[in-house]
Amino acid sequence: MKETNAWKLNGVVAILLFLIFVGIAAGSFYLLDSENQPLYAIPGILGAILAVITLSSIKVVQPNQAITLTFFGRYIGSVREAGFWMTVPFTTAKKVSLRMRNFNSAKLKVNDINGNPIEIAAVVVFRVIDSAKALFDVDKYEVFVEIQSETALRHVATKYPYDNFDDGYSLRGNSEEVAAELVNELQQRLTVAGLEVIEARLTHLAYSAEIAAAMLQRQQADAIVAARQTIVDGAIGMVKMVVADIEASGIALDEERKAAMINNLMVAIVSDRSATPVINTGSLY
Question: In its keyword annotation, does this UniProt entry include Transmembrane (predicted)?
Answer without folding.
Answer: yes
